[in-house]
Specification:
68 residues; mainly alpha
């Protein structure tokens, strides 16, 4: 009986998501998705700021050409 109880406890402990290759790959895929989403957001912010800088540069060039 004690052996059966020990076997059941070990079986339950070994059933975590990291105990199988499929479980580990799902966790890795979720982590990669979070990182990709974060990079997409960073890229969007960078592109918005670049557009803003390009507009400011155009305005400065227009002012410079009018003052000549």
């Amino acid at each position: 009986m004690k052996l059966l109880l020990t076997f059941l406890m070990l079986t339950l402990i070994a059933c975590g998501p990291t105990s199988s290759p499929e479980g580990r790959s799902k966790i890795r895929d979720q982590d990669l998705k979070v990182q990709i989403d974060s990079l997409k957001l960073q890229n969007s912010v960078i592109l918005d700021r670049l557009d803003s800088l390009q507009m400011r540069l155009s305005q400065l060039e227009a002012v410079k050409s009018k003052s000549r």
